[in-house]
Recover the amino acids of this structure.
């Protein structure tokens, strides 16, 4: 455990920009690169790390427990997608945790301080920090390893704390720091201003009018709406997320939902979660503040992964209780969402499943007949939130050909996309291909055995990163959000011929009106 | 082709040593995992190495044909091309088979006087290594292409609205 990693292009992430760190008051803003010899750490960096660790050992019982109780049984060792795909033993969760546990022993525990290596401890050096940076940004906080640990040790939580400590030194990454700063200033990761956000949605409304033949006019920042809808901003500008967003727009119009968009809380994602508990709290607060300002009853959230982990696991203790909101009730079905009693926030897929279950949607699943979809359980919605049945229920109702992947790689056993927790940067593509290999391999199996040609998901990072992963590992498999497939199947009131899908491509499942019907109609018209 | 009969006779030993040689290019803890974990989903890399070396070995017996060996080589090299290997390390496994044949079948090649056949076979394996190199290069090029494409996809609508993208063919009206 002594070697420091080599920072080769494709396998490390660019350093957080000084300007981004300054915007949100993060420590030690400066220009630096992981390839530099001198990382320009603060003068008293050792003291900062020791204090940072001590404080967190006090504050988080889980962290203290996880530092103490691992028996090195190895059950987690081969469960991490980064280990499986990279073959690098330090990606075994037990060894990843050991990177910080050895410092805990060597610097914090009396026995370790005296016995050093004999007690499994080591001393803090700059190389240790470099190693942390390399490997704690090579863990997607997916929690797969925790499913297999007999003690429930969650390496994701260890990574979360390690990144927090790295942040105290200003050793963070730009792909997280810049979105955090943008989100803090303008409400979303890319820093889209309110008018741009709105215009993008209007552009997609035009596309819906063109391809589906219905004109939809949603509201923005409308006070007094029953529901506030928040989705990851990737859905507003990235392909294929925009087609998922068109799906939301159509669904809400179809059921006549009293809802509004916010151009201020214009991001469901929360990269603060990948920075520190405090930053997560600051960014999470805005959705709830906006719900208060607009006076809505509850919040409906789009297809996102980590946004749901934040809401589900942290929201209440961070910014709760949101007692100006009401427990969500589906206005169409009367269903009371018990699971959202305290967070007041419902996932679009739960909402859609409830609508289908209560027969509130007019669906023609044959519109998706050319699509053979499988489903990727996002780590956050499955292991972080327990949403396992709803997406499958929805898919089985809007498509005729849904195929699940092998049982050992779905639901709570799901393999991560390999790019979560803020690692979806372009400069990191090779590492992402390593981490995504186990997931892609399982998709490949159903592609070859069952002709699967679409990987559906309910997470914006998945939608952003899977196209690249599929291109490399399983060409011929597209990527979509579940809501896009819902929209394909929706029979909208007053719709035109659905010859084109939401992507503007010819729809192979489109069936033109039958000849005799068409001529009969023409005949009737003639008689009039 | 007496040599190929010999190779067929030693097939399982050759393949198993070839798998070992590939697996040993990884750190020892990883090598253990790659060899021992049998499930194709839990251990996709090990599974690929085992199944594709078998396929490749059969191709060597049949006579190396670029088109036929490409898919099998691709599955191994596609993985190694994005792992922590230099280009030569990524494809060196093809040469390992050459050395293993000499080591395992060498004495019988001598006694049976099959030197010329061995020269021909080694030329075929050298050719396979060249094919491997082409595949490696195409994987690397793909990584760069995909990266460029992803940048576009990540800001798709913004680029499109700024008229910075070439339109896909479709029924778009002029005003879009
Ligand atoms: S949380 Fe996920 S990425 Fe991190 S060590 Fe565990 S399995 Fe690997
Ligand atoms: S499974 Fe749990 S106890 Fe066993 S090595 Fe992994 S973290 Fe430690």
């Amino acid at each position: 455990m002594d070697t420091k990693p080599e920072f080769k292009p494709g396998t490390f992430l660019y350093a957080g920009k000084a300007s981004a760190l300054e915007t949100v008051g993060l420590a030690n803003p400066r220009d630096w690169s992981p390839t530099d010899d001198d990382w320009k750490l603060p003068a008293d960096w050792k003291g900062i790390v020791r204090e940072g660790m001590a404080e967190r050992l006090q504050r988080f019982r889980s962290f203290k427990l996880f530092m103490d109780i691992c028996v090195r049984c190895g059950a987690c060792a081969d469960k991490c997608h980064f280990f499986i795909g990279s073959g690098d033993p330090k990606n075994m969760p037990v060894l990843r945790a050991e990177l910080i546990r050895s410092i805990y022993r060597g610097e914090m525990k009396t026995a370790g301080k005296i016995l050093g290596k004999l007690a499994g401890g080591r001393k803090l050096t700059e190389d240790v920090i470099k190693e942390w940076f390399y490997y704690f940004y090579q863990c997607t906080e997916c929690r797969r390893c925790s499913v297999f640990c007999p003690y429930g040790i969650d390496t994701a939580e260890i990574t979360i704390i390690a990144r927090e400590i790295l942040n105290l030194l200003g050793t963070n990454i730009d792909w997280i720091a810049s979105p955090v700063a943008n989100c803090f200033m303008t409400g979303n990761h890319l820093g889209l201003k309110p008018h741009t956000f709105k215009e993008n949605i209007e552009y997609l409304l035009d596309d819906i009018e063109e391809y589906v033949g219905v004109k939809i006019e949603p509201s923005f920042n409308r006070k007094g709406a029953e529901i506030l809808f928040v989705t990851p901003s990737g859905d507003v500008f990235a392909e294929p997320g925009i087609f998922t967003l068109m799906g939301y727009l159509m669904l809400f119009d179809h059921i006549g939902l009293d809802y509004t968009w916010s151009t201020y809380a214009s991001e469901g994602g929360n990269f603060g979660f990948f920075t520190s508990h405090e930053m997560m709290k600051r960014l999470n607060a805005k959705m709830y503040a906006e719900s208060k300002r607009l006076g809505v009853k509850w919040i409906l959230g789009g297809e996102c992964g980590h946004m749901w982990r934040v809401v589900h696991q942290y929201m209440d203790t961070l910014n709760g209780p949101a007692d100006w909101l009401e427990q969500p009730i589906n206005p169409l079905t009367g269903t009371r969402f018990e699971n959202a009693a305290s967070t007041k926030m419902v996932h679009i897929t739960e909402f859609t499943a409830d609508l289908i279950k209560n027969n509130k949607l007019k669906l023609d699943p044959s519109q998706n007949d050319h699509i053979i979809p499988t489903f990727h359980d996002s780590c956050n919605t499955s292991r972080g939130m327990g949403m396992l049945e709803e997406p499958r229920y929805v898919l089985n109702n809007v498509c005729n050909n849904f195929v699940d992947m092998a049982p050992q790689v779905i639901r709570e056993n799901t393999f991560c996309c390999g790019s979560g927790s803020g690692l979806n940067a372009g400069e990191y593509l090779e590492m992402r291909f390593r981490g995504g290999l186990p997931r892609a391999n399982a998709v490949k199996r159903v592609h070859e055995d069952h002709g699967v040609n679409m990987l559906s998901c309910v997470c914006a990072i998945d939608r952003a990163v899977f196209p690249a992963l599929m291109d490399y590992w399983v060409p011929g498999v597209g990527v979509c959000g579940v809501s896009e497939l819902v929209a394909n199947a929706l029979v909208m009131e007053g719709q035109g011929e659905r010859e084109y899908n939401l992507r503007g491509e010819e729809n192979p499942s489109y069936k033109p009106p039958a000849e005799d019907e068409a001529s009969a109609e023409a005949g009737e018209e003639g008689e009039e | 082709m007496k040599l190929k009969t010999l190779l067929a006779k030693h097939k399982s030993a050759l393949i198993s040593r070839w798998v070992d040689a590939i697996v040993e290019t990884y750190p020892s803890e990883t090598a253990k995992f790659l060899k021992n974990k049998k499930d194709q989903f839990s251990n996709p890399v090990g599974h690929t190495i085992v199944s594709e070396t078998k396929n490749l070995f059969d191709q060597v017996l049949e006579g190396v044909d670029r088109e036929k060996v490409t898919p099998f080589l691709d599955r191994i090299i596609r993985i190694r091309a994005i792992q922590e290997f230099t280009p030569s390390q990524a494809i060196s496994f093809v040469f390992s088979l050459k050395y293993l044949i000499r080591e395992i079948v060498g004495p019988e090649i001598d006694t049976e006087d099959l030197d010329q056949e061995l020269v021909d076979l080694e030329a075929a394996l050298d050719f396979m290594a060249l094919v491997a190199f082409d595949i490696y290069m195409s994987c690397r090029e793909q990584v760069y292409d995909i990266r460029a494409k992803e940048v576009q996809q990540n800001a798709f609508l913004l680029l499109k609205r700024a008229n910075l993208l070439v339109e896909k063919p479709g029924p778009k009206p002029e005003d879009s």
